[in-house]
């Protein structure tokens, strides 16, 4: 079923900046795309965010929300997620004669063959928002690695919007930082939402 769905997954996710589903040599293709942008305009700055333990920390609620957005022919993936992650899974820990349960509200099982799809679904909303906020940055993701290329290496004014830093031009108390650093900070804010 997964093999038969690869072309449909690629058709859905690739235009949204996701390169890990059905795209051969995706990390290299992301790097080539950014190198092409740099060759066109040497003032651009490449940035990357690697979500540490992204697969283990992504919200299952965000994954389910992303899976609900899939086209009808891919809804079988949502049902598999429901089969394995319905309810709140518990992990049993034992130490000597003591044992206790820990509830799992984030992430999914290591080695899950659908893990990359689940992660892409969970990150999709954040990635689409980031691509909308910065349409000239050529933002792409390969699983939990997000890459972009700012239009220039200028510095931007950023101000705290109460949730972290937002790109707000020339506001009193704003911090001057490289545009690439501001984009990474904004990615953190969006992903945390």
List the helices and strands and how they pair.
Layout: H1 2-13, H2 26-40, E1 45-50, H3 54-57, H4 60-68, H5 75-85, E2 90-95, E3 98-103, H6 115-133, E4 140-142, E5 145-150, E6 155-160, E7 165-166, E8 175-178, H7 179-192
Antiparallel strand pairs: 1-5, 2-3, 4-5, 6-7, 6-8
Helix pairs in contact: 4-5, 4-6, 6-7
Textual characterization of the structure:
It contains seven helices and eight strands; from the N terminus they run ααβαααββαβββββα. The chain has helices at 2-13, 26-40, 54-57, 60-68, 75-85, 115-133, 179-192, and strands at residues 45-50, 90-95, 98-103, 140-142, 145-150, 155-160, 165-166, 175-178. The strands form three sheets. The protein has a three-stranded antiparallel sheet with strand order 1-5-4, sandwiched between helices. The longest helix has 19 residues, at 115-133. The two termini are 32 Å apart. The model is unreliable at 163-172 (pLDDT under 50).
DSSP helical segment count: 7
**Overall pLDDT:** 75
Structural class assignment = alpha+beta
Q: Could you give the order of the helices and strands? A: HHEHHHEEHEEEEEH
Ranges with pLDDT <50 over ≥5 residues? Answer: 163-172
Physical arrangement of strands within the biggest beta sheet: 1-5-4
What are the defining features of this structure?
7 helices, 3-stranded antiparallel beta sheet, 193 residues, 20% strand
